[in-house]
């Protein structure tokens, strides 16, 4: 009896250990050409596994994920697992020339990482030039086995990815813009799960349709994969309950309209109407615009279609009333600030908000646009037709090196980057007032070095140079807490008194408000080289990006792992 009892205990322990350790999940991503037709334009699109959007990656919290990426196209490529912490596995983070050299044509690379302490919706995308316009897909991290959501289990889960469609080659667009110094041509449509919808010319068949049943609860995993636009989203005559942002549970709140910036994810619960409503409801997304440049002023639409309880004796869906949602005006900054202010971390015993209460290092970064002078004997089409558009952090426009920063750091290669990134503006000015006459930026490959586990406070301040604008900033390798935000110039004496250090929202991407500031805090507990950049790709291309280098800690699990043997070479 004792022996069988011991054997039973052994099996229970083994089962527990397996549950705790998680599984290993293998994926193969073939980066391939694929012909896609939208708006009567057929274009050769860069895809993963010939799918647009790409395949979903599903794992549980605690799982190890191994993705073999094989490059079958002429372009160099990398894949970034947006929002995955990559604890000590920076080699798998993916931004080109930051953590790795790109995967060249006919080469492959294996991304190998463990999902630790995260569950919810994230996403993956290409991280070189503008390739992510079509190389993207969802990451769905389920709770550990025998764990549940902190809300009632939904009847069904649905992923909705918002994106952009260009009739012409986006690589040619950004290449030309960088050459001339002008703003790039804008997209021709927004998309819902790859489909523009019926409001565009030659597009009525390319409409996303979500079929639902009355009286059910749907978990919608919303992802903004658009290249250059923050987007409003709404479903006509329906409210949703926000329960998660960037794979962090929130205190639930109800809304009929959402704003999602590029890079962000938002999980919402949609409760359908109790009876068949005799109507079809449109879901729609269109841009929130703060800048002065041109933009794609259009709306993508999908259909929320109720399944009739009996398929007999009812109107065909063609005869049903179509109800359209009301979206905020394109410049509704008031709505945006009110909406983002509603996000609060769940902050309970199981999912605490471990916000740094004290700060070791404070940083103040200006973010915004600027100019580079026109090269001699050339004409430029940027501001005043005499310069090129640029963008910067603390007036440093970041230049990508030709060797990955993480490689240079790990192997001690000199001359790739410097560690003198300014911790505050070198020349203070009235950031949101009249812009200075000299709008030129400095160019360089500079980084900030942080000792392991430093508690960091970073205030990011928008500037009015070439127009105040909202900037969704994404930090790789980390989540951070949004402890405060406001309009005008940040006041270091008064504004910290209003910081939320109890239940601030924890995210990986947050917007610096147009003509305002945002304050974030995080512990630098993940060694490696971590990219931080605006997730409007045009601004990233112009240089609104920088790198944090976090040193190893003393413990065995606090050190950057050695590079894998198949790490691509430049």
Automatic annotation (TrEMBL):
Listed cofactors: Cu cation
Coiled coil regions in record: none
Pfam family, any one: Cu-oxidase_3
EC class (word): oxidoreductase
EC number: 1.10.3.2
Domain of life: Eukaryota
Gene3D superfamilies (UniProt xref): Cupredoxins - blue copper proteins
Primary subcellular site in the record, as a coarse category: secreted
Cofactor note: Binds 4 Cu cations per monomer.
Compartment(s) where it occurs, according to its Swiss-Prot or TrEMBL record: Secreted, Extracellular space, Apoplast
InterPro entries named among the record's database cross-references: Cu-oxidase-like_N, Cu-oxidase_2nd, Cu-oxidase_C, Cu-oxidase_fam, Cu_oxidase_CS, Cu_oxidase_Cu_BS, Cupredoxin, CuRO_1_LCC
First and last residue of the signal peptide: 1-22
Family: Belongs to the multicopper oxidase family.
Function as written in the Swiss-Prot or TrEMBL entry: Lignin degradation and detoxification of lignin-derived products.
UniProt name for this protein: Laccase
